[in-house]
Design brief:
heterodimer; A: 315 residues; alpha/beta; Rossmann fold; Alpha-Beta Plaits; 39% helix; B: 404 residues; mainly alpha; D-Maltodextrin-Binding Protein, domain 2; 66% helix
Amino acid sequence: MPALEIDRLSKSYGTVQALRDLTFDVHAGEIFGFVGSNGAGKTTAMRIMLGVLAADAGEVRWDGKKLDLEARRKVGYMPEERGLYPKMKVADQLVFFAELHGMTKADARAAVERWTDRLGVGPRRGDAVEKLSLGNQQRVQLSAALVHDPLVLVLDEPFSGLDPVAVDVMSDVLRERAAAGVPVIFSSHQLDLVERLCDRVGIVRAGSMVATGTIDELRATGEAPWLLAWTERTDPDAVRAALAAVPGVTTTAVPGRTDAAHVLASTPGAEQAALRAALAVGDVARFAPDLPSLADLFRDVVSEDDAASAEGSAA
Amino acid sequence: MSPRGPVMLVARREFATRMVTKSNVISMVIMVVAIIVLGVVGKLLLTDDGAPQAMRLAVAPSTSELAAHLEVPAAPEGGGITVEELQESAAHAALQDEDSDPRLEAWITGDAAAPTVVFEQDPDPAVLALVEQAARDVATARAVTQLGGDPAVVHAAVAAVTVSVDQVVEPEGDFDGGQWGVAVTIISLLLFALIGSGSMIAMGVVEEKTSRVVELLLSTIRPGQLLAGKILGIGAYGLFQMVVLGGALVGVVSALGLFPDLDVDLGAAFALMIVWFLLGFGVFALLFGGFAALVSRQEDIGSVTTPLMFALFVPYYATMFLVPFQPDSTLTKVLSQIPLFAPFLMPTRAAAGVLDPWEMPLALALTAATIPLLVWVSARVYRRAVLHTGGRMKLSEALSSSKG
């Protein structure tokens, strides 16, 4: 199965530069999480991938070739702004979308039956979409993205508005499609979900990709500090003084905690010396590498973003 | 998939979603039934008024000579004059008998060459004129006989007189009410169909924008294909309505023989109306589709459809007033060639039979040639504007922005 390549996309709306040289790949069989704060350019990038918007520069390739109209019929797309015909029956419009993607009517009917059942809206096939609850409309929207057995999946916020059961079904579907070799890219603000589900993550800021990699790779980019926590009986000042005396470590306070400190070793093994020094003056409750969550990584990026935009406005 | 595939898919969806709604089926049935009922009622009313009754006159024995000069045999559609002989008392009774049918109009007494006409009350000038002519004929016949001639020969000679009419100034078109009625019916149907289809297209375009389904559609098909499919589908539906309603109208009129004196070939007028509906639809549908993409909400549709409605009503009223009063003036001829006016003016003038032979082919060609131009402009506006949300997009903006 071929990969999806996003190559130096640029796009501006008037004076606002929405994307600048946005570049990343989604490998075959991989779930790629696309995160970034509101207005970072995720939706613009996805719209360009689907040809709904034209890029000012750059291109999107699939299987080494430009992702043109013909190839886009093989893509499953879930736009950020959900869209279905409100007065049309669920099955009728899913068959219509499947046919637009090049399926025959008979195949389309069978696929609609399969996907609506799987996503739990089978009994509503004969109802107009506007009669469904928002959650069920969302499931129909997902069916529209999946019904033609897409070879690429581009989903903008697929989990927003779903109940936990639907989130599980959706997660299974994404894993299953990826296992079949389909490159899957989705955006989400539910970072715990992204962390759990994605093989790789890309963090986009102000229209550029600022970090890509597996969650572990992203964590490894910074030197992870060790968290050293002590018991209640231990005198915090004594521990801090002892830590300060250990060569090769920098100690910083943990925001919001008085019973712990971050220990950053600048020479290999220096953190072990810090542990021994702490044990010499008190009891240690916990000592472990403090790996940042995706949310922490994301916050770092966003704060850099704020700093960058503050600089920008100052200049 | 060939590029025609998605266009036909979109067209089929547009057609099907409109055809199968209950409201559509009900309204079509109601309209066809209404046309048939109106036709039947109209037939009854027209027939009641229509057949002229025979005029009933009576003569006294002294004036019985007049009867031969008064009597006119009834034509197949009615009319004619019957004459009977009555004594004075019977005549007076008959004149006052309100129940008799037909009623006795007058009783003629006195001398045949100098009669007295007795009415129930008010003298009828038409009857007086008839009697006067008959009395003169009697007087002439008597005089001819006296002079030794044959009254029959004189009568035949007089009957053979014919008068021809010629005019120095030709009348401005031979307008007649029946043709005008047909013309107004044709263009009203055309207006109805164009407004109906135009609004449907505008609402369809905005519905897709409002529901944002357009984004999903545009990920698989080109904007031009989407617009083309929409116009084809709604056009087919409009044509279907036009054929059903117009066909019902023509069918009812000819089946019931409603306007026997009408000097218009209804079938041909109907066929021309369909041709011009297609062309007019091509012009206006493209404008409606392109313009509607400029707005994002149903509430804002009015701001783009109002100018287009105006563009429909102006040619409609122009046709209503120009065709009867100056069907072949220079102004009318020039307007007839303008694509926005032609769909209204041309079929109407054709029905009135006032076209020069070159006019129809030229107007057809000009209007048909405008359509590709409008396709280009509308597709351009549509492509630029269809993903635009928020307030109304300016036309100039949609036309000029270089990248969607």
